[in-house]
Automatic annotation (TrEMBL):
It is an enzyme of class 1 (oxidoreductase). Pfam families: PhyH. InterPro entries: PhyH (IPR047128), Phytyl_CoA_dOase-like (IPR008775). GO terms for molecular function: phytanoyl-CoA dioxygenase activity. It comes from the Eukaryota. This is phytanoyl-CoA dioxygenase. Belongs to the PhyH family.
Amino acid sequence: MLKKFRYTVSNKGLSYKQRQFYEENGYVIIKNNFSHTLLDEFSEYFHEVCNGRIGTSSRIIKDPLLKKLGVKAEEAIFKLQDFHDDDFLFRYATYSPLVDIVESIIGPNIMAVNSMLINKPQDLYPDQSRYPVHQDLHYFPFRPVNSIVASWTAMEPIRKENGCLFIYPGTHSREQLYEHDYPMGSRTPLFHGVTDVPTEETKIDVMLDKGDTVFFHPLLLHASGPNLSEVSLLQSYIMVISH
């Protein structure tokens, strides 16, 4: 007898086993999901925007403390926000291997509601590039929750030393949105985090190669560590809802 699924809707882009994994863990990793050529084009576009050579309809978000430190423009830019409003970068949101998996999780009639091309510079002050434990649903008023999914694509190899994601598998199934606030003692005003992370939960590192994409439920507890390498790191994120 086939299992009744709660958090996925079809086999359009996911196998039965991949759906089972997402149901139980709240995330699934698709290896080599994105064209490296396309990611290289996005990366080059980001650098052109950072250096003022081209404009973009995306919003440029800068780290205020890095800006005060006088670092070069590219390192002070934290992200390009709402890139789905940018014709060049919107190709990420319409990339068919990504769309097929999104529709397998939340169904058709989808709409991008948040997108970010994220730059993670090396740490120049404590906690600068660390993202505290949080749930994406904290930032958005959209419902129903199971009609939402996030995708996060590595635009270059991501390991623990340069600030990979870490997640708490299965925490989506608690179906609880935890209280969030600025982390105690944090020096960056950019991030909120869960005020009381459940201590009994197990976390795992999500290390990805270029072109890999992780899809995850908006209630899944997750975070990312600091970038302790000597180079910046580019990642692409988009949240999608079915309506």
